[in-house]
Amino acid sequence: MDIQRIIDAITAEMTAAQHRGKAADYIPALARVDPAQFGIAVVMADGRVFTAGDARTCFSIQSISKVFALSMALGKVGADLWTRVGREPSGSAFNSVVQLEHEGGIPRNPFINAGAIVVSDVVLGGGEPRETIGDILRFLRYLADDDEVQIDQEVASSEAETGFRNIALANYMKSFGNMHNVESALKVYFHQCALSMTCLQLAMAGRYLVHDGKHPGTGRQVVTAIRARRINALMLTCGHYDGSGEFAFRVGIPGKSGVGGGIIAIVPGEASIAVWSPGLNDRGNSLLGSLALERLSEATGWSVFNPP
Ligand code: GLN
User: Fold this and answer.
1) Does residue 308 fall inside a structural domain?
2) Catalytic residue among 63, 71, 184, 196
3) What interface predicted TM-score (ipTM) does this complex get?
4) Contacts for 165-173: CB closer than 8 Å, 24+ residues apart
5) Residue with the nearest Cα to atom 2 of ligand 1?
6) Which of 122, 166, 209, 223 is the most buried (most CB within 10 A)?
7) Is the pLDDT of residue 308 over 90?
8) If we measure between CA atoms, which residue out of 291, 261, 264, 251 comes closest to residue 207?
């Protein structure tokens, strides 16, 4: 299979696309990103790397960070995490507040904002935000095998300045007893959202989810094999918020989107993929990123519903 030829063709189609969606504009750093960009990186299970388009341009990974934070939280408290956050698709927007009232302050899943803020509270574990943020950054550098991964401080401050909805979610969950340290957990959450990475770095970082939880560079388990499977299951069912069903239907691969226009997608045993295009669809997921992954799964046959 000629992966390079496939992704070159996809990149040509996406670069020429007329309908590109609308980039997030709730903070200046995202509003000024050139919407004409598109990048894709594919890291194969055997280590081969393929890139096309703007695969080496940094972007704000935003909610994609929730996958890595979840992996850290599971390492920290194991299955106890599931007493504080559920595993069901929400069917509502990423920042929705309504369901919390009916379900005792327990968010539906770790990928909507409420769930991710609880996960940040768990990763923090009563510690210092500065140290936890450092731990998250080091974790991503280790996974990506790249010490250049950075946190964009401007994005982190803007997230805090405009994060009224997230602040409300955290306080609301606190009222149900499901948050320990609202302020520190939010600080962690805003910084993890501000991780700035390229498609190539992200696809490298996702490798452990291709290899049953094992970092292929060091041979060490990042998460246990069963947890890797479960994280992939959650990405498939919840990774695109109220667009998760549509993504599973069209692409059939576990994926997690971010409002910066990135998507990480995992084909267990085959490949770790990252795509990026800033324009979003009406569910807040990258419009061309989703389309590119649909094209890639068509061209390669990659799907968790298509046994090799
Ligand atoms: N920083 C964004 C927020 O919390 C992340 C949302 C997203 O990427 N979907 O609102």
Assistant:
1) no
2) 63
3) 0.96
4) 165/95, 165/97, 165/113, 166/95, 166/113, 166/117, 166/190, 168/97, 169/95, 169/97, 169/100, 169/113, 169/114, 169/117, 170/117, 172/97, 172/100, 172/105, 173/100, 173/105, 173/107, 173/114, 173/117, 173/118
5) 62
6) 209
7) no
8) 264
75: amino acid identity, one letter? G
Instruction: Look over the chain and give the mean of its residue pLDDT values, rounded to a whole number.
Output: 97
Reported pTM: 0.98
> Of all atoms in ligand 1, which is nearest to the CA of residue 113?
4
To test the ligand 1 pocket, which listed residue (26, 67, 112, 113) has its Cβ within 8 A of the most ligand atoms? 113
Query: SS3 of 228, please?
Result: helix
Amino acid at 134: G
Segments forming the whole domain that contains residue 70: 64-195
259 classed as catalytic: yes
Q: Is residue 24 part of a domain?
A: yes
Residue 266 sits in a domain whose CATH number is: 3.40.710.10
The size of the chain, in residues, is: 308
Asked whether 113 lines ligand 1 (CB < 6 A), one says: yes
Q: In this structure, are 8 and 103 located in the same domain? A: no
Q: Which amino acid is at 148?
A: E
The verdict on whether 241 is a catalytic residue reads yes
